Amino acid sequence: MEHPELRPPTLLALPSYLAGHVARIGHRTLAEALAGYELRLPHFAVLAGLADFGALAQHELAHRLGLNRSHLVGYLDELERRDLVGRERDPADRRRQRVTLTASGKTMTRRFKGIARRSQDAFLAELSESERETLLSLLRRVVVADDATRTATGA
């Protein structure tokens, strides 16, 4: 018996399976694009978070990115070593570290945003611009709803 589809139809009927698999494709594409800079996806996430939100306390940055605090320290160490971020005492609470983008970090983040955009365009080439916008809108709604639920329940 021949099976025209490579994957089991039962899995192809599950949005969670499809979303997870598409995410792996997108991550792989972006990771390959960033590899030439010897950076991983969490490094890009840190830079993007700081570019979007400005300077943040380390614990707040970890929370907003959904990263383990101890893992974040390792990512920050590497980014600081490369002069892309700086850490300073938080003036609002001297017990905390606040993370900022350096001038080099701002320049590299702009470059990485372009790389990310091109890698995502390549992996979604099968979809029209309108379909991409719809996909992004629907995925964002699911993520925002989950964030709201987790915030309301304290998770």
What does this structure look like?
The protein is mainly alpha-helical and 155 residues long. The chain folds into two domains: 106 residues, Orthogonal Bundle (Arc Repressor Mutant, subunit A), CATH 1.10.10; 32 residues. The chain is 68% helix and 11% strand. The chain has a three-stranded antiparallel sheet. A hairpin with a 2-residue loop joins strand 2 and strand 3. Helix 2 crosses helix 6 and helix 3 crosses helix 6. The protein starts with 8 loop residues before the first helix and ends with a helix. This is DNA-binding MarR family transcriptional regulator.
Task: Give a brief rundown of this model.
This protein is mainly alpha-helical and 155 residues long. It has 7 helices and 3 strands, in the order H-H-H-E-H-H-E-E-H-H. The longest helix is centred in the C-terminal third of the chain and has 25 residues, at 129-153.
